[in-house]
Amino acid sequence: MDTIKKRIVATALSVAFACGGASAQTLITNVHVFDGVNETRIENANVLIEDNLISAVSTDPIESEGATVIDGGGRTLIPGMIDVHWHTTYCCAAQTTVITGDISELAIRGALGAEETLLRGFTTIRDAGGNTFSIKKMIDKGDLVGPRILPSGPPITQAGGHTDYRPYQAVPSNPGDSLWYWYANAVMLQADGVPEVILRTREVMRMGASQIKISAGGGVSSLYDPLDVRQYTRAELEAFVEVADTYNTYVLAHIFTDAAAQIALEAGVKSIEHGNLLSEETLRMIKEKDAWLSVQPILNDEDAIQFSDPVSTAKFLQVTDGTVRTIRMAKDMGVNLAFGTDMLFDPVLSRQQAAFVAKMKMWFTPAEIMVLVTSNNAKLLDLAGPRHPYQQGPLGVIAPGAYADLILVDGNPLEDIDIVADPEANFDLIMKDGKIYKNTLD
Amino acid sequence: MAYINRRSFLAGTAAGALSSLLLPAGAYAQGATPILIRGSNIFDGSSAELMAGMDVLIEDGLVTRIGANLSTDGAQVIDADGRTLMPGLIDMHWHALMATSTIETVLNSDPSYITLVAAETNRDALMRGFTTVRDVGGNVFPLVRATREGRIIGPRIYPSGPYVGQTGGHGDFRPPVAVPAGPGEKFDFFARIGMSLLADGVPEVMQRSREILRMGSTQIKAMAGGGVSSNNDPLDVVQFTFEEMKAIVDVAAN
Questions:
Q1: Which CATH class is domain B35-87?
Q2: N or C: which end of chain B has fewer CB within 10 A?
Q3: Which fold has domain B90-253?
Q4: Where do the structural domains in chain A lie, given as residue ranges?
Q5: Alpha-carbon gap, residue A295 to A254, rounded angstroms
Q6: CA distance A38 to A79
Q7: How far is A27 from chain B, CA to nearest CA, in Å?
Q8: Is residue B167 less than 8 Å (CB to CB) from chain A?
Q9: Which of A183, A204, A206, A241 to mutate: most B Cβ within 10 Å?
Q10: Searching chain A, which residue's CA lies closest to the CA of residue B176?
Q11: What architecture (CATH level 2) is domain A2-80+393-439?
């Protein structure tokens, strides 16, 4: 039903655009097209882009007078990649910024990081928490360079939950205490009890969120919540889901463990983020409820996140142990899987975002990975229904009517996934919304 | 059935003091000379047939007799000369405060100014034949009182008082940066002058509904779905959860 609503709007919008007069056309010739869905390429194809949408894909020559022609030179044309668990602002500021910096620093670092994100080939991201509303607005207007953003706004936490980063002395709080600086600036938010959950969820939707992010279980980077802790009561979780549903969208929840995941799924949460410690029983529940598991290849490898606090380091090791097993099980069981990277508080590690796509080869074939990070990830974004900010056409596919978010790749990532790990060298052209942001073909 | 018919409730209690609180307008025609309207064709408000050639006697603000060739003794006589006589019109969704003022004026003006304009608006409504309105939102209590006291002229008013709405709903006209609201920050000027109250969660919707009834509302107006004039709520959005809506209804029914 959400998808239907979305498409009705999409039709109305495309009619409106069609009336807009002469359109700019770009014709990309001589490419092998990975369309985002099929695991084999359309060989020797041509793709026509009109304004911001793809209008034709054909192995026959496409006549288009006045179009700017780009010779793909036998490269592979793929849809722009999608990261469903990205933090536009948290990615690119050190954790100490929360102590030493302010909202302006976070926003500026986020804006700088957004440009790098697009130039790594990620044309769309679901922001899994943070105040990205202005960055998104300015990217969409063309004032900044960056990916499309589906903002979750401030992640909502309980007192002592995963996104309660207040100093130790912040509790017990007084009823009249003003909001903590980062809460007041919508970088995070806290709610305890059903009435407050309802209020804060509405406030986040009012800010313009596409979906609601909550912290519903113990976290790694946080200090007050051991991993086994369930966060929020059943009634509170149901209140999040009900308010999101009144806005015709859904809730994604930070969760690692079975107990937390099961109660969240029962309450109606549709997207379990991380889930590294989940058992087969919980994975089956995700599948039965047609919910999603949003995974990250977070391993204790050369890219392991470094924490200043030993408590966080210990928790990180516990979680990474589960990663290998859980993703394999989920894949075998046919659970709805989506891919994200969840880079946190490390601008240097964040540059490895595309390399994390290639890490999925531990579980998937290269072609499976490419489907995962394009059309499959786009399906998860569609759960936002009418709150999905990009309603003109589908994302993550190369097909007539789809957004012209495209990458021209030197080589065939359906055979060698390591190609996408080095976007600087191998992505020769990056287009988003019909506009070229990188072109090294000459 | 939790609802009590107004007339049966008043008959049952026989409490004159209470009835004057609940009735929207007092008897301001008391003690005046009776009026006889002579020779009209009456539409009585329910029958599809006109009653031809009738006289109507009005005493103390009420219609007391309807018939042919009524006595004119001591009455001021108005000759209808064959015109149709009908009940005053009733508008069930009227905004005295917003019918003529723009939304910018309402949001950015002193409440005294808005109320004075609304008095003029209501006078015009009466002159268009609307003798009763259900006012569906905003602080019209001064108009109710001044109309009852005969200081201004206008329709009878069934006031809803401030509407109760959720954060981000059709009654939330606060600026974008009003959220997240800290303790004590939820009510902007518009709320404090009784135009629109925000309530989230069952305890708060109960409290605000009771406050609105305490102000003298005859019914509660709730903002329960996406609106056109508001900035933060697409049309598809459902406003208030089931439990919140039920709490508002429960408080009103009580």
A1: mainly beta
A2: N
A3: TIM Barrel (3.20.20)
A4: 2-80+393-439, 81-363
A5: 11
A6: 12
A7: 37
A8: yes
A9: A206
A10: A207
A11: Roll (2.30)
